[in-house]
Specification:
The complex is a heterodimer of chains A (about 190) and B (about 200).
Chain A: E1 10-13, E2 26-27, E3 44-52, E4 60-67, E5 73-79, E6 90-92, E7 105-107, E8 114-119, E9 125-133, E10 141-148, H1 163-167, H2 169-172, H3 177-185
Antiparallel strand pairs in A: 1-10, 2-10, 3-9, 4-8, 4-10, 5-6, 5-9, 7-8
Chain B: E1 2-3, E2 9-13, E3 15-18, H1 20-29, E4 35-41, E5 47-50, E6 55-61, E7 67-79, E8 84-87, E9 92-99, E10 110-113, E11 119-122, E12 127-136, E13 146-159, E14 163-164, E15 170-174, E16 176-178, H2 185-188
Parallel strand pairs in B: 2-6
Antiparallel strand pairs in B: 1-2, 3-4, 4-13, 5-13, 6-12, 7-8, 7-11, 7-13, 9-10, 9-12, 14-15
The chains are: A mainly beta (about 190), B mainly beta (about 200).
């Protein structure tokens, strides 16, 4: 039986930045204004803020960057504020310079052209992400940020059950309203 | 708000307003458009305390801020018996700051002597901050009735919308949750068994 995407995934996008998005990926380069180029390479940062709503604790933040060439960005994450080189909760610069993997920081198939990690059991509240630009990118880089229940879709080890979500649906009502409307029709597919 | 063993120690809540002083500051730095300075203080102007006795303050940071400074001014000795007031350069005003919980002399996030220099915190975390200020070195005056009196305020530097980082030259975006049609499609397609309750 074919399994669709899990319903409790939500993607975070820079909606107000002028671009329109048809997928969960957004290009990083378009977020960089000309004024930011005045800094030295390594001192140029682009910051992203995302809010984990109340009731969504237990979700995992999935961070992905990909490019056809070597990625020219380092990613820093900090709960409750903006990260910097001296204050962060998790970071990924390259294969060797990064946060240690733990039950709260899981790393998947990262390579020169790909960064792919999860911040597990993310706390409710504001998370700040900092993209540190190392030098002028040689190719476009796309990023996606999502809140997921099951990292890497459970790595093909069984299914991701949503028993927790069933009991906690009220917590999600305000962010998942369109889905809940659809759920309402689920037992009556012919109506 | 009260605290302490006997619930008799007040916690003075700072409230913030846009600072006029700052406009002059910004004009000289030629970045008036980029930075906003908030001045945060209690309704009371002067606080007095005996050696080692803390006054407690708190402040809510609601949005991302670049810098948060705590500063003391008008530091004076005050002798309660003779009602004399003198300047106090040698007195120490130890300031302990902690995010989300009450600081102590041993447990804190930041500390410094406010009578020497303001306490500056870069990229402070969002949430409630607690500040305690403890006078020290008053005993040099050989008079146990002496208190240290001071004014305290904090300043918060925030960038204008869409800007962040030192000097507010970097870009910041607030991400919004977006759902794509494909998340709903399995249901529309009739694959109802996909949804696990």
């Amino acid at each position: 039986m074919r399994r669709g995407p899990t319903p409790f995934e939500s993607y975070y996008l820079p909606v107000g930045s002028g671009a329109s998005y048809t997928s969960a990926n957004f290009p990083i380069e378009t977020l960089l204004s000309n004024s930011s180029y005045n800094g030295e390479p390594g001192n140029i940062w682009t910051y992203l803020l995302l809010d984990i709503p109340r009731g969504a604790a237990g979700g995992n933040i999935h961070v992905q960057l990909s490019s056809d060439v070597k990625i020219n960005y380092e990613v820093y994450a900090r709960f409750g504020g903006l990260p910097s080189l001296i204050s962060w909760d998790y970071y990924y610069a390259n294969k060797t310079r990064r946060s240690d993997t733990s039950m709260f920081f899981m790393l998947y198939d990262s390579s020169d052209g790909k960064i792919n990690f999860y911040i597990m059991y993310a706390r409710e509240g504001t998370w700040g992400f900092g993209l540190r630009h190392l030098n002028t990118s040689k190719g476009p880089t796309v990023m996606s940020l999502s809140l997921e229940r099951c990292p890497k879709h459970c790595s093909s080890h069984g299914d991701c059950k949503f028993s927790f979500d069933a009991s906690g649906l009220t917590s999600y009502r305000f962010i998942l309203n369109p889905l809940l409307v659809t759920f309402t029709f689920r037992p009556f597919p012919f109506l | 708000m009260m605290t302490g063993n006997f619930c008799n120690s007040p916690v003075y809540l700072f409230s913030c307003t846009t600072s006029d002083v700052n406009n002059a500051l910004n004009a000289t730095e030629n970045n008036t458009m980029l930075e906003n300075m908030m001045t945060c203080k209690s309704n009371l102007k002067t606080f007095c305390a005996y050696e080692g006795v803390p006054n407690i303050f708190s402040l809510d940071i609601i949005n991302v801020a670049e810098e948060f400074t705590v500063m003391a001014s008008d530091v004076k000795f005050s002798d309660t018996t003779s009602n004399k007031t003198t300047g106090a350069n040698d007195v120490g005003l130890m300031c302990f700051v902690r995010h989300g919980a009450m600081p102590s002399v041993t447990v804190y996030d930041y500390s410094s002597d406010l009578n020497k220099a303001p306490l500056v915190i870069h990229s402070p975390l969002i949430g409630r901050w607690y500040i305690t200020i403890v006078p020290i070195n008053l005993v040099n005056t050989q008079d146990s009735n002496v208190t240290a009196c001071y004014s305290v305020e904090s300043r918060m530097l925030q960038c204008s919308l869409g800007k962040a980082g030192p000097n507010c030259t970097m870009d910041i975006y607030t991400l919004q949750v977006v759902f794509f049609a494909r998340f709903i499609l399995p249901i529309i397609e009739g694959k109802y068994t996909d949804i696990n309750y």
